[in-house]
Each structure stands twice: as C-alpha cells, then as structure tokens.
Amino acid sequence: PVLPKRISKRDGRVLLQREWNPQKKKAIWTKTYQHSIADSDEEDLSVFSEWENTLIKRAYEDDVTSCFQLVEQSFKASSIRSGDLPQRKRRSEMRTEDAGADLYTWALMKPWANGSRQAHPFVQQRHYLKLARGILQALFSFHEKGFIHCDFHPGNIVLPARFTPLEPIEGVGERVKIEPLWEKVCIIDLDCSVSEKIEPFSTFPLNPFDEADGPSPRMSEHLRRRLLVMDDWLKAKGQTRRYDRKFWSKQKPNPLKSFMTLDWREDLYQLGYWLGQIRDGSPDGTWGGAACVDTTGGPKGGNIFIGTFAEELMQWGGPEQIDWDSNSLTNRIIAPPESPHIDYISRIDALLRHLPAHSNEDSFVLRRRDHDDAYALQVAIKQTPINRQKE
C-alpha cells in the first residue's frame, strides 16, 4: 500500500499536514497554529509552536537521539477581514521530518503474524516487551539531558518500520510485510514538555481532570498538583489560564519555574498507564478488547513481569513519592540520582532471551482485504454460491 502524498487533519486551531518533499526525498509534517486578534490573549496557541521549536533545537544540540528532527519554523502575520472590520491574524508554522507511524496508527492495523490474526500489533509477549524496551530507551535519551515530556501517550510515541511488498494472493489482494524498528522509537509533540535548563514561556493546556471532572488517571500527582496550584494562582489574580508570553515575563518571581523541577517520574508514570492499556485493552476498545497480551503463555518470569510492570512504573507517581511544598510549588521528595531505565531494559533483555523464538518474529503482514472495505466486499460477493456457479 502506498500512503497518499498529502494528509491533513485539524484539531481546533492546530492544522497538521503530511506531504512528500521531493528535495529531501522524505515526508515532512507541517504543524500550523493560527490566532486572530479577535481571540483573547490567553488563547493564543502560537506560543506553543515557539516553545516546541526551542525545545527541539536544544534537544538536537544536546544529541537527544530519540527526538524528531526540525526542518524549519516561521512566524507570519497577514491581514484578514471579518465583516467590515480588518483584523490581523498571526500564523506560526513548524515543519519536521516524518518519523513514522504513532502507536494510535499501529492500533488501527489488522496484522497477521506467525500465521494467525492479531488483536493488535503488540499482542504477542515478545512484541509487547520489545515495544516497552524501545520506549524506555527513547525516554532514557530524553531524560538523560533533562527533558520531561509531560504529555506522554500513544499519539506522541512513534514506531517506524521497514515495508516490503509481497506477492498478491487471490481473494486477499496486495500484501506488505512490516518490520517494526523497535530500537528507533521516537518521541514527538513537545509543546507541553519541559526542560530543567529552560524557563517555560507559558503555562500548558493540560487538563488535570478528565471529562467527568475527576482526576485524570494518566497524569501523576507530580504534574496534577502543579497545574491545580497554577490555576488557583491565576484565579487569585482574576485570570484564567494564560498562554501569552508577555504576561508571564512580568511575574516576579515567575511561578512557571516550578515546572522545571519535574523529573522522569512523570513520564514513567504515564508510560505505565499506557502500557497497562495496551496490555489489558482500553475501555474504548482501542487495543482490541480485554486481556490483549497473554500473561500465561510464556515463561513464569515473563508472565509475572508483563502482568505487573505497568503498575510498577505507575508507582513513581504514587502518594509515597509526594511531599508537596506549597511555598516553593515543588515536591520535597527528590527523584533518585540514578534513573531505573537501564535496569528495566536489562530485565526485559533477560526475559526476551528466554522467550521461545518464532520465524518472522519481528514482522507483521497487512493484507488488502483486511483494510480495504470496498475490496473485501467485492471478494465476498464473488465468493457467494450463486456467483461461484456462474463462474
């Protein structure tokens, strides 16, 4: 299957476009923020483009290998008209290299592996463990240089792959072999990220509550407390959440500095939450229903690890890790000087060595019949008894 040369999707004022760049001979993503002066200052999201650009450049300078590559960024202003009133419209645009498919895209795949249909691409123990290992390796590169993502979810985790066309099969159609590049997991979308070296320009549009106004289960107490305190601080000043840089530059002392004390525990907590969703199946069915990853079919040690690892990671955001200091807006309990990433990776490597190996263990096959509804319908009609008799 060939991806279309151009893909567009919009999320509010943010427009994402993917297109092939013939000069660079690779796909490029363009993220565009648009803001009109008719909008209130606190809703000017263009500051996140500037912030993300700053972090990506710093990550590149610091040799963070798991971060995607910035191509270019531009800020433009153009005149528009709304009725009889002229307005100014700011437009910030950032272009980055396409690092591959995010995990939500992988969840949409209907793959075959070892001769059987998979509930989702990571249902096999070996694949689940290799995915966890690849993400931990990417986070280690990120955290080692003092960057914390804060908005870590499957849409911001990219797993690239190698594609090899296979011979078509009658009734099945075109097929393609997909080999995940587990060691090249990439972290994207840094507009809500922080660095221990760079003071934030603005507070972040992260909501510490879910749609039911309860605490968001994917956000640790480390981050939730900072966001709630920041909102209370703004409320005391008669403000709502502000995103404009000028407002925050005037605050002395600037409470945004508290975000610079976040550490790797936040991202490991969020990783644990999502690994649990992938392992067990999320309520919305994204990962194929309950009990996706088998925790009984492998060696005992592997079964126990897969069944408990997500919860182990989430303990980094548990109450025993919190001692909140309301004066400095920071956590008195400091993260251990040695992060556990490498230890986790070593444990996974030991488990992988004891898992039974299969041929094509690191590849999937996608078939046209499973992804092209029109083609599948044609095959079904052709295979009805009446049409078979006609043939």
Write a structural description:
The protein has 391 residues and is an alpha+beta fold. It has 11 helices and 17 strands. The chain has a 5-stranded antiparallel sheet with strand order 1-2-3-5-4, with helices on one face. Strand 1 and strand 2 form a beta hairpin. The radius of gyration is 24 Å and the shape is globular. The two termini are 29 Å apart.
Which percent band covers the strand fraction?
15-25%
Mean pLDDT: 81
Number of strands: 17
Number of helices: 11
Low-confidence stretches: 37-42, 75-88
Sketch the topology as an H/E string, one letter per element: EEEHEEEHEEHEEEEEEHHHHEEHEHHH
Which class of secondary structure composition applies to the elements?
alpha+beta
For the sheet with most strands, the description reads:
5 strands, antiparallel
Query: Helical amount among residues, as a percent range?
Result: 25-40%
As laid out across the biggest beta sheet, the strand order is 1-2-3-5-4
Q: Supply Rg.
A: 24 Å
Topology of this structure?
Layout (H helix, E strand, L loop, with lengths): L5 E6 L2 E8 L4 E11 L9 H16 L8 E13 L2 E13 L3 E2 H6 L3 E2 L2 E2 L7 H20 L2 E2 L8 E3 L1 E9 L3 E8 L5 E2 L6 E2 L25 H16 L8 H5 L15 H16 L19 H15 L9 E2 L4 E2 L9 H14 L9 E4 H4 L1 H10 L2 H6 L1
Antiparallel strand pairs: 1-2, 2-3, 3-5, 4-5, 6-10, 7-8, 9-14, 10-13, 11-12, 12-17, 15-16
